[in-house]
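re: the backbone from monday

yeah here it is again, tokenized this time
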């Protein structure tokens, strides 16, 4: 443990002492130098002006050709925009037709569903009626066989017949 503390102490001492004596070198700064401009004669000025005019004329010709290209591109772009607007109108028309078709199919589906639910209700109503009629028949048949059972159990025969016949009709319909 003492050795570890000694190593840490020496490491810390070495790094801090190095930081106290080491300094970065300053970067050199450039010194501006003044250059003398040569005196130009008026003849050079005229030649330079003609040269500049020629350059301007060539730039003007390039600008005119670029302008012509841009005009043709603009015409082509406006044609493309008109064609795209036509296509958008056609797609919108088709989308509206599809929407109307969907609405019509949805109405038909709702009408069919309403008819189906009414038919299911009617079916269940008729099923109940048939089960009640079968139960009544089971009661009458149970009354016929009531004499064959002993007195405390003979009441269950018509009830059982009603339940059996009603259940058979309900499950098989």
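seq for it, each position gets an aa:
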């Amino acid at each position: 443990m003492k050795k570890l503390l000694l190593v840490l102490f020496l490491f810390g001492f070495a790094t801090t002492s190095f930081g106290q004596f080491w300094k970065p070198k300053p970067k050199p700064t450039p010194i501006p130098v003044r250059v003398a401009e040569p005196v130009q004669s008026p003849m050079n000025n005229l030649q330079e002006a003609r040269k500049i005019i020629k350059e301007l004329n060539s730039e003007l010709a390039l600008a005119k050709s670029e302008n012509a290209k841009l005009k043709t591109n603009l015409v082509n772009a406006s044609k493309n925009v008109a064609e795209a607007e036509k296509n958008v109108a056609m797609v919108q028309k088709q989308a509206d037709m599809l929407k109307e078709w969907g609405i019509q199919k949805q109405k038909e589906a709702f009408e069919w569903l309403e008819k189906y639910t009414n038919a299911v209700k009617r079916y269940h109503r008729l099923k109940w009626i048939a089960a009640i009629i079968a139960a009544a028949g089971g009661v009458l048949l149970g009354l016929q066989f009531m004499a064959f059972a002993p007195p405390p159990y003979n009441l269950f025969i018509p009830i059982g017949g009603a339940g059996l016949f009603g259940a058979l009709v309900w499950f098989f319909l």
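The first helix runs from residue 2 to 21. Residues 49-172 form one domain.
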